[in-house]
Amino acid sequence: MSVTSKEAVWPIVTSSGHLRVELDRPARYKVGDRVLTKNVNYPAHTRLPRFARGKIGTVHLVHGGFPFPETMAQSGDPKPEYVYSVRFEARELWGAEGSPKDAVYVDMWDSYIEPAPETGR
Amino acid sequence: MSSHDHEHEHSLVPSEPALRIKALESLLVEKGVLDPAAVDEIIDVFEHRVGPRNGALVVAKAWTDPEFRKRLLADGTAAVRELGFLGMQGEEVVAVENTQNVHNVVVCTLCSCYPWPLLGLPPAWYKSLAYRSRVVIEPRKVLEDFGLKVSDDKEVRVWDSNSEVRYIVLPERPAGSETLSEAELAELVTRESMIGTGVAKAPA
Lengths: 121, 204
Prior knowledge:
The structure holds 2 protein chains of 2 kinds.
Chain A: H1 6-14, E1 34-37, E2 56-66, H2 69-75, E3 81-89, H3 90-94, E4 103-109, E5 113-115
Antiparallel strand pairs in A: 1-2, 1-5, 2-3, 3-4
Chain B: H1 16-30, H2 36-49, H3 52-64, H4 66-74, H5 76-82, E1 92-97, E2 102-107, H6 116-119, H7 124-127, H8 129-137, H9 139-145, E3 155-160, E4 165-170, H10 182-186, H11 191-195
Parallel strand pairs in B: 1-4, 2-3
């Protein structure tokens, strides 16, 4: 087993650029697309917050490709996917108690979302 | 106080997490897995070399250099790379701008993701369950707890940094700071103003 030395700390702390993955497929969603988050209760590690499940939001940014937390946690397999910043109106998340003016932006891996239905909310 | 002259109280046992960490550290050192000098170095880095001063320099540059501000808002990672402040726990950066119409605030609801190379280690309150759960539900009340009243005409945007992307708030440049230099402006930029639980200080 390799032991991190004192000298190795600063290069590690200041290194960057190894998380992003260039994917050989285009992103499924573009800025402005309305998406519905999945309402799943995954039994292990997930980065899909409970408050943002089964909610409709709008794609605000396409961040690019990143390793998928579920497979990373289970087996170390990165299975990278596109990640998006999705905007949810406070009222969509919290009902009438939410402020009509405010919003929460949550980063969503592609597997967490599907196209929003044409009608409804 | 006991008769000897140092200050610690013998009756106080360190907290359970502190004891657990001490036990883990000594085991890892004994087994040759961990170099204590490396641990000291990590602590030194985040106590003395990396902290909110870095983020403040980014903000001050954005306030004084309109082209840099544009680059920062269009591609935070590339703009922060220009200043050499990318790194562990801050490899991908998105900067969100406070304006007269919008106030931004950052949280990590799932754990404590935070832009280390720009702001240092997260404060204890940032990691608290209360902040993480409340700020998404009632951001205005939480900001009031921090002494910040956001006007009703402003939209509040809460950014949940639950992926590898780290968010930093570009605060509004305070009124009366027009004549200040970039270095003087950086002094007005607080850690809280870059998380969004505060605003930049007014010039003295």
